[in-house]
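Example (one chain per record):
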Amino acid sequence: MKRPEVSVRGKNVPRSAIRKLVPFAKDREKTGVKIYKLNIGQPDVETPVEFWEGVRNFKEKVLAYAPSEGRPELIKSFVQYYNNLGFDITAEQLVVIMGGIEGILFAVLAVTDPGDEIIVAEPYYSNYLGVAAMAQVKFVAFSTTVECGYHLPDKAEIVKKITPRTKAMLFASPGNPTGCVYTRQEMEMLAEIAKEHGLFLLSDEVYREFTYDGEFATSILQIPGTEDCGIVIDSVSKRYSACGARLGCIVSKNKEVISSVLANATVRLSAGTLDQVAIANCINVPDSYFKAVRQDYVERRDIVVKALNSVDDVVCRTPKGAFYIMAKLKGIDTEVFAKWLLTDFAIDNETVMIAPGAGFYATEGCGRDEIRIAYVYKAPIMKRAMEVLCAGIRAFRQKNQSAS
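Predicted structure:
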């Protein structure tokens, strides 16, 4: 009997770098050890009451399919949101998606064919790589560094990555995993490159609300001349702390792009009806909600930065957005270190779970001495988690020095 084989494509879809250590965490928790999970961007910020009001006010007797492009009230809500920002968007220029990662996939499918290339700034959100594998496209990366706060390099460094197969550039600002907020000049540089070389710009803007220290996130929609090339991927997961709603939208003024995205959306029929109704009502969330959340994140961020910079041979810059920090632990293989934290280390029966940096890079060997931390806990818990992590860094260094 001949045994069927899984496809090469199926084998090549990488597991999420953020979740791959989960089995070790589960085993450790069975022994009674408490784990502070700093590996995943699931904040403990409460979902606004307007979301739940939207659920309670749903009066339809049948939970029916929604239109593939999204329910009218949610589209209206998104249009109002963007126009409040001054983006001048119409209902025909957006399609509702089931979370940001589906948006990335639909956008990539809209602008590439198998074998095409997309230029990315690394480090990047690790699940982008899974999308590339599904779409059978190649990421060509240029590197940014912790020492420069992960800001973009010179234009020439990006342009030299362009080949005849390059179709798009993919980037995020505010960034996951770095927290970097690109300046308007940086966004204008990307737009200039795209226009000169006929490329699409896939702009992941899901952390738009979360910028600090007087910084503001510039959308690609705000850059003149990007009407044909600009594609925004957005999500409500972080904006309204509604990760489980799995909703967002793709926005573009390019009619062909929106048509392609909508075609893909019809294949999966629709996003969840009840979630759409609830998120539509979130247009009524007051500015005071976001102000309080931003203040909370600044406090958490500062706890993490202060703690990491108290440890020798750790390089950590203060990020200006999102709720992530990338840091370099000089001389430490963070793949080994992250696993060791879950299998061998504890203080007062507590340890931490972090994301190793290599999973956020396309270039082989990069990020091996970096980690990503999601500051998703309230300040007192975050402070304790960082005490445990910093103790773990010192203990791991000492262990390795003793062994050498």
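Caption: The CA atoms of residues 357 and 371 lie 4 Å apart.
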